[in-house]
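User: My advisor, Dr. K., asked me to get a structural model of this assembly before our group meeting. I'm new to this, so sorry if the format is off. These are the inputs:
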Amino acid sequence: MNTSMSWIRKYVPDLNVDPKTYCDAMTLSGTKVETCEELDKDLDKIVVGKILTCGPHPDSDHLHVCTVDVGEGAPLQIVCGAPNAAAGFKVPVVLEGGRVAGTHSGGMSEGGIEIKAGKLRGVESHGMICSIEELGSTREFYPEAPEGGIYIFPEDTPVGADAVEELGLHDAVVEYEITSNRVDCYSVIGIAREAAATFHKEFHAPDVKETGNDEQASDYISVEVKDKDLCPRYCARVVKNVRIAPSPKWMQRCLASNGIRPINNIVDITNYVMEEYGQPMHSFDYDTVSGHKIIVRRAADGEKFTTLDGQERTLDSQVLMICDADKAIGIAGIMGGENSMITDDVKNVLFEAACFDGTNIRLSSKRIGLQTDASQKFDKGLDPNTAREAINRACELMEEFGAGEVVGGCVDVYDNVRKPVEIPFEPDKINALLGTQVPEEEMLAYFRKEDLDYDAERRVVIAPTFRQDLKRTADLAEEVARFYGYERIPSTLPSGAATAGKLQFNMRVLAAARDVAEDCGFSQGYCYSFESKKVFDRLTLPPDAPERKAIEIMNPLGEDFSIMRTTSLGGILTSLSTNFNRRNKSVRLYETGNVYLPKALPLTELPDERMKLTLGMYGDGDFFDMKGVIEMLFLKLGMNMKPEYRTDTLKCYLHPGRQAQIFYDGKNIGEIGEVHPEVRGRIEIGERTYVAVIDMPTVLEYASFDRKFTGIAKYPAVTRDISMIVPKSVTAAMIEKVLVQRGGKILESYSLFDIYEGAPILPGFKSMAYSLVFRHPDKTMEEAEITAAMKKILNGLEGLKIELRK
Amino acid sequence: MSDIEQKVREIEEQAAREITSAEHLEKLNDIRVAFLGKKGTLTAVLKSMKDVAPEDRPKVGKWVNDARESIENKMEETKARLDAEKMKVQLKAETIDVTLPSKMQEIGHRHPNTIALEEVERIFVGMGYEVIEGPEVEYDEYNFTKLNIPPNHPAKDEQDTFYITKDILLRTQTSPVQARVMEQGKLPIRMISPGRVFRSDEVDATHSPSFHQIEGLVIDKGITFADLKGTLDVFAKELFGPDTKTKFRPHHFPFTEPSAEVDVSCFKCGGKGCRFCKGEGWIEILGCGMVHPHVLEMCGIDPSVYTGFAFGVGLERIALLKYEIDDMRLLYDNDIRFLKQF
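Assistant: The format is fine. Below is the predicted structure of the whole assembly, which you can bring to the meeting.
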């Protein structure tokens, strides 16, 4: 919503504040100012001058040399390049040292352009005669300004007067952000009322009378509303013998400041009233309205209608139409029809001011794909009580401008009159909610300034119907707070019982996981929850892969954001690819985020959101570095069981010989592997890439931050190394299983310290060497015990066809 | 003085001279052997005891022992001196260039979003708030209806919601978590709910279809707007520095009444106005208000007994401001050169 301060002053004449003070105060009282454009900010020392003489420049074929009377001192010699410069005209003149806002081509210059005395092609010039563009405005605001020439004032303008004042440019155009609850402030009157209350000034609403001749509108037009739920009120009036002409300059300027192009008196009046009251109006060519009857009804499904912009629209049964006895003549609240629009030949005009259901207008306008100034006002939900005054205002202006003969009376279909809301006045509750001690009288004073009534006897505040936002005490509390001043409300902290602040257990576990990942050199990335369906192809997943059962978004931003991810790999691999393509060497990334697994499709209940820790890396490091991160994670989370790495089910997106499903306590807790070269190719990463995905809900079942001290071993350990020739098919896990089972309780730990393939080891075999540590908690072990344990272990290993190295 | 005594004294003096002039530990050992060894000169005196009259033997023994003790003491002193000298030489030889590059463990970096989130969590946990999360795919009812945004309310359009079905959507705010907690009916409530939210905004320097919010809620008897002001004032000072000021401006949100938007004084220029705050001196950071009585009623809380406040702040907004990141897309690119700066 844009409005000039001068328009506001029409209703608040005593508003004598500068734009900055005005904007700050309005923002703090709740009408937020987005921007403020001071029209005179770069205009300085500009007066009305009269061109006394205008002769040719001796050295130019387009420049003129003028003498100009500026009211004070001797006439000035000014060189002027405008083609329309001529003796006798009164024009805006910038004196030496003055400033203009822009160039004659309309380009604006920050801080303005200073005008100095100087010579133009050898002839002295003491100032400049300006065009409207140089004054920082446009012909849109000043349609009377000549195109491509200097501005010319009316004959009667006093010479020497402030030209900026004469043009009405000592003004500011203010843009407000109006919140959806304050429908009344989508109007100049609404903002003026707020301004008056903010600055403690008198508010003067327009004094509107239902003027007109002795005839009755009802003799000219009848109105039937078939869908009263969508049209609570419909007012119609008639103006005869209209004369189309430009509207007065003041009105054109008001409209221009609100961003509306002036057209002619009828259009301008309806637009002016729409801005002034926030009530859109429509004007029909009365003589095209068949049967002189208005019917308000829903459209038929598939009904076609041509709006006044010449476009054919297809409608449905939820769209409300304005019709005459035979045909539709307008889409209610959105746009009139071509068949009834005002043309230059119009003789009689039918004015409409109606109230339509805001939601219906909003949804219809969306479906039809047509948003207009009118629909944007209606869709907020207007107060039906404004319509009558607005239509009378329009007719009054028609009379005032001599634009036609207004027929007396108004056809007004309005059954369910909206009544003001009464709210009990409870000053103690208001103070208790705000934490203030605003006296009762002061509160009532604020309410009065806003045109809220108060019934002292019943102690109720009566909110006028245009204040649809006021329903209960909390709403009144906001009114008090706004005008008392948010800044004057004290700052305290909540009292009451103390509460224990805390993070939930799952958040602590996740934080620990982040620490581990970062300690291992992985940096945290953030990936989208959305995915493209193409991700499944990139991962080479078969058509029936469970991952493909993803939740689809009804209205996605595009294919890349069309589903909710069921795997976190797409995100991390895309991020690695970004890094690889930007030539970043050796990158390690991790991410914590949900995957979304539907219980059934289409969704009937909320999906299972599973938090995943996803790690990915290329460059330095291999499978076992990645495996180390996982085991470090388990260690840090107090998960002391040994994880299992199973290779019996393979994932197609991982290298078939370098992947494992990770099991903890028999539960699948994640997966790890090298990315399949085929997948890596599709994602465009040119180096071996390793990933791991850990299912955090499973981790949560086992993670613990509890620790118990188990003492420090008192008795010495004994170490035995064994070096073996092992068939290639035997895995470390198989060997270690034997070590653990056979070594018994006294086997404290074991570690692989050498693995080797190649000569002199025969093909099909590998050499492996383990170091075993034995310790008894309660005594120094005897040689015999260790020998017995070793014998058991070696017997077990023989079962795997393992031989000791000689 | 007998000859023997004379001789012992000479040996002692000679030894002392040699010890004093010894320049390294090996020499000292030679001296030990020469005087105190099996064939040493002092030992020789002892060996000649058999030629001494028995009554004189104790005397001679004492002379020899005294001399031995004196020599040994001297040797100890000298050894200590030589040891120290040797150590000094060795340490000097071991001098390193301490300005050579360090060997740093390559560690990972936390995302600025998470750093900002942990900062906010720290502040509120310290004030007794519980951190509670909720589902990202949510029912329309929790995301809108229970927060005073009934079906067909224009605010539903404003929030540009992604829908999955007619009734299920991607949450546009984390407030539905608050509705869920209020419904459980355990009072008082002091909570913040951080999390991912979704709105249908095209990706650009200041927008993303998914971003993060942190919303706070306090419900108790006697909670006032003044408490809201005080709480957010503490929050702003903790987050942006102790000189930070807050400005509350009236605003409108469907689930709070009265509502406010909060600006903080620009922490870059201190409020004078700079490029960072676009010359305003203030930066808008959050929205807040007193929980709307109708919202309390819908969640089964009696608004005539309990009042509360709620606030919401964008995590990315904080991260961008606090770490001076000029483009939101950087947060989702995951370029290691960006992440390494945090």
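One thing worth pointing out at the meeting: Chain A touches chain B through 93 residues (CB under 8 Å).

User: Perfect, thanks a lot.
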